[in-house]
Amino acid sequence: MANSRFEYVRQFETHDKLLSDCYIVIRIDGKKFHEFSKYYEFRKPNDERALKLMNASAKNVVLKYKNDIILAFGESDEYSFILKRDSTLFNRRKDKLATLIGSLFTTNYVFLWDKFFPDTPLNVKHLPYFDSRCVLYPNLSIVKDYLSWRYVDTHINNLYNTVFWQLIQVCGMTPQEAEKKLCGTLSSDKQEILFKDCGINYNNEPEMFKKGSLITRKGEILHIDVIKKIDELFEGF
Ligand code: ATP
Ligand code: ATP
Ligand code: MG
Ligand code: MG
């Protein structure tokens, strides 16, 4: 073990251990994916290849740490990994958890890119990278609300984006016109605009777009009504 007079600088490092007996959620989110998705010409509003790439990357993270992870949930450019309350992964060190899960996700995303985008090589000037944070939740009831929050967010964003892009792509509106038309509308109004103006029944949209993706500890990827199944999903935890 090297020992030098410089060793004392280690004392400046802070301890970052997360409180015991709390659920840890690690959420990663793509950096500037609005631009990234434009550069690689993702289909709007939902590029299925990109979502499947997110899912495959997250699945590898779940399988690697399946003893610590309860489940993972993803939509758009984000994924949440929910850890068990008594997990001792990386000694519960916040920096280690956030950075290692974030970089493991990113390396998987890059490694798997060609499989989902075989005709679109990654450009070194436009590489994907993800931020990552840890949040502690003190009980299961709040963890369930956390997951429900991300699920509802998926629905709200997807409904908005679906109508928004239909108004542009099918009805020929400019983004400004589409935004104005949707301003102040309720969920039911949006579904009606989609049906009457664009001939689309929102219920028939792909489940992955409407419901996001949930990955179980076994590595199954599901697109389910999270709120309906919320108690079942956390049974035993
Ligand atoms: P930040 O760096 O702050 O996260 P961001 O540009 O990544 O900025 P987000 O709020 O994370 O902003 O939104 C991600 C954006 O990435 C979406 O708004 C959408 O434009 C794009 N995006 C992500 N996934 C897909 C997908 N599967 N298909 C099409 N577009 C996508
Ligand atoms: P931790 O996950 O705690 O960081 P670690 O195994 O990465 O554990 P480090 O203290 O970071 O431990 O040390 C990195 C180790 O990786 C070195 O001890 C050495 O064995 C190996 N290593 C790193 N870079 C090289 C290299 N260029 N050539 C040969 N071995 C290397
Ligand atoms: Mg982002
Ligand atoms: Mg995002």
UniProtKB/TrEMBL annotation:
Gene3D superfamilies: 3.30.70.3000. GO terms for molecular function: GTP binding; magnesium ion binding; tRNA guanylyltransferase activity. Its EC number is 2.7.7.79. It is an enzyme of class 2 (transferase). GTP binds at D29, G30, K31, K32, F33, H34, S76, D77. The keyword Electron transport does not apply. It holds the Pfam family Thg1C. Residues 142-218 form the Thg1 C-terminal domain. Residues 6-138 form the tRNAHis guanylyltransferase catalytic domain. Belongs to the tRNA(His) guanylyltransferase family. Adds a GMP to the 5'-end of tRNA(His) after transcription and RNase P cleavage. This is tRNA(His) guanylyltransferase.
